Amino acid sequence: MTVEEAVYYKYLLLCGYAGELEEYVDRALEEEDPLSNIILELSTCGSSHNRILEVLNSFILSIPKEQIDQSRIFSLILDFLRRLYKEENMLMDKLTDLMYRISVLTEDAWEEPWHTMNIMGDLYNEAQIGFICMDSYMETFHRFINEGLCI
Known about the structure:
The protein has helices at 3-14, 18-31, 37-43, 49-61, 70-86, 92-105, 114-128, 134-147. By secondary structure, it is an all-alpha fold.
């Protein structure tokens, strides 16, 4: 597990998507030889989200912040959001709420690309009430979700 993956899974866990990390750990237990320390630690946490967060935070904090590739974290998150939207048909209001929650967790919610994620729900609400054109919103949303293009 890379530190970027650890940050990604931390955000998902905090947003209620623990299954993503569980699947990752299960795959790693089958495929890694030898097992990395982080996978060994995570495999002993069971379903204790507090313990999982403790392990992830310890791993993340062991790496200097400037060495963490924020663009890689964004790419992982965008892939996850795209999958929720396209494959699981998550409703727009739920998806934009999740985008907001993730952006706030990054501590960089006012910096791109997180800022676009942060305001996508507000823009959707404005499109729903007719303040902005829904077609224009959907075009902006699709450019973001498919290509990562910020507003």
